[in-house]
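To whoever picks this up:

The nightly regression suite flagged protein adenylyltransferase as changed. Nothing in the input moved, so I suspect the structure step. Input below, exactly as stored in the fixture:
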Amino acid sequence: MASQFDSWESYFYPDTIDPDTGIGTLRNLYEERDARVLSRMEYTDTTVRAVQLGNGEVEIARTFDGAHLRAIHGHLFQDVYEWAGEYRTVEMSKGPGRGFGEVRSGEVDRYLSDARQLVTSTDWAKISRNDFVATASTVFAYVNQAHPFREGNGRTSKVFMAHVAEQSPYRFDFARVSPEQWNGGSAMSRPDMFAYAPEPASLVPVFAAVTVERTAPQAGPDRAAQVRSALSASYPRPASEATRQSPQQGTQARRGSAGYRSDRGTGRE
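Regenerated output under the current build:
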C-alpha cells in the first residue's frame, strides 16, 4: 500500500477536508472530489465486480482468514481505491463506546483469527438451522469488530459470510432485513468498553431473518444467491460522512444507540 495512507487525514483530499469536522472526500482512482458523486461511481463499479464474484468469473480462495477478506475487498474496490485489499492504517469506531479492532496492537488479525477458528471448527454440512444462525451471528460479530478496511467493510463481510454459508444447507438473503435492522444489530454486538469479545446476541434475530434454505438438495455454492448477498442493502453512504472518533463514552451510551453512526478516526497521528 502507498505510504501516503499513514494518518486519518491522508485518506482524504486535503482541499475537501472540513476544518471543523476533519472529514472530507476519500482519495479515489477517479480523482472525484464530490463525495456523493463518488458514492454513485463506487456503487456502480463494485456492483460489476460483485457480479463477477457471484458468477464465478473470479475465484477467491476460501481460507476464511484475513487474506480471504483482503482478496474480496481487493476485487470489489480495485476500480475505486488505491488501498483496495489492504488493511486500514488508522483506528476507527462508530458512535460512542469501544472502537473497532486496534491496528497498533494487531487486534484486527486477532479478531479475524478467532472468526476463522470458529468457521473451520464447525460442521456446517450437518448443522441445524438454529445452530447455523447462532454460529453465523458469532462469526460475523468478530469480522465486524475487526472492521479491517477504511471503507467497504459491509459489502466485503457479506460476501465473506456468503462463502461461509456455501458449506451449509442455507444461504443468506440480506434484502430480508432493512439497513436499520442490520446496522442496529451490528452496533449492539460491539464489545463492552473494556472487553474484547463481541456480543452476538443482537445479531441472532437479524441472521434468523436473512437465513433461507437452499433450493438445491445438496449444500454447496449458490452463485446467484452470492450475487444477491453482495449487492443487497449495500448502497454506500458518501465518504465525506466519515468523521473522527469522539472521546470514548460508557457502555450505557453505546447500548442505547439505535444503530451505527459514521466511521470515526482516533485523531491526528
